[in-house]
Amino acid sequence: MWQPSIFIFLILLIVSINHLPLARARGQWCVVSPSATDAQMQANIDWLCGHGHVDCIPIKPGGPCFQPDNLRSHVSFVMNQYDQYNGKTEKACYFSNTGIFVFKDPSYGHCEYDY
């Protein structure tokens, strides 16, 4: 039989592992595929932002994700928002075959991607 102190140690070890930064850093993010055209990326932004599917304020001037001011950065941020809020599924990241999953956090500066 286990001694109570070993049992308590194991419980505390399991709980503490969930609080390590390394454990929290694991995730999956939906971003635009390198092969997506400008027209496809613009269509994704128009659908996501024009229909209120996600909050697009972060990619507007003055927002934390406005810089760099380019279509690829902006669309990746809003595609990830949509994917995160819709279950992180392949379907939620499909975007007419322009979305891909990455496993390295694309956040930068004050622009934080949800995961």
UniProtKB/TrEMBL annotation:
Gene3D superfamilies recorded: 1.20.58.1040
InterPro entries recorded: X8, X8_dom_prot
Keyword Glycoprotein set for record: yes
Residues of the signal peptide: 1-25
Membrane topology listed for this record: Lipid-anchor; GPI-anchor
All copies of domain X8, residue ranges: 28-113
Keywords, alphabetical: Glycoprotein, GPI-anchor, Lipoprotein, Membrane, Signal
Name of this chain's protein: X8 domain-containing protein
Pfam hit, one: X8
Keyword check for Glycoprotein: yes
Cellular location(s): Cell membrane
Any one of the GO CC terms: plasmodesma
